[in-house]
Amino acid sequence: MEERVYTCPYCAMAHNSTEALKSHVIAEHKTEPLPSPEGLIRLAINGQGYELTVEPHWTLYQVIHDKLGLTGSKMFCDRGACGSCTVIMDGRPILSCMTLAIECHGKSIETIEGIAEKKHPLIDAYVKHHCMQCGYCTPGFVVTAKALLDRNPKPTEEEIRQALAGNLCRCGTYPQHVTAVQEAAKKLPNS
Ligand code: FES
Ligand code: FES
To answer: Residue 171 Cα, ligand 2 centroid: separation in angstroms?
Structure first.
């Protein structure tokens, strides 16, 4: 009988059993093994653990917004073009409309709700500098800016513009965002 091969989805290394593949994923890729075939995933969202069964085609946005009721993330385009659905996953801003929920098993996710709950200085700065008109794009901007300040607490104006370049605002609030992020950076602890 032909020997079955289990291929790592991250680096394509071949293994001869699911146990070997799981051990490899944990050791080499520092992440949880793949979710169960039934679609059971575990997520930590804003520090709270969730366990739920997802369909293979569900996006992370659908799970966060529609299934878990965290409605702060917004959906402008549903095709990875606007940034309004941005959440932070394991420290990196990602587009939740373009990410399959089943790929997020074992991940730690931060949404606008968690950022607001912690009273991050970005929240007051965005209000003070009137960074929103209709406000639909605002959560995506704040989440992207939070990820920037987490990795670079003293960004230059150019770095702020680059970080926010993937977020679109059809109301044209762009100039205020730089001012708000600069002010929030000054109010970070240890700044
Ligand atoms: S709704 Fe996700 S990028 Fe536009
Ligand atoms: S404030 Fe309306 S889309 Fe940005």
So the answer is: 4
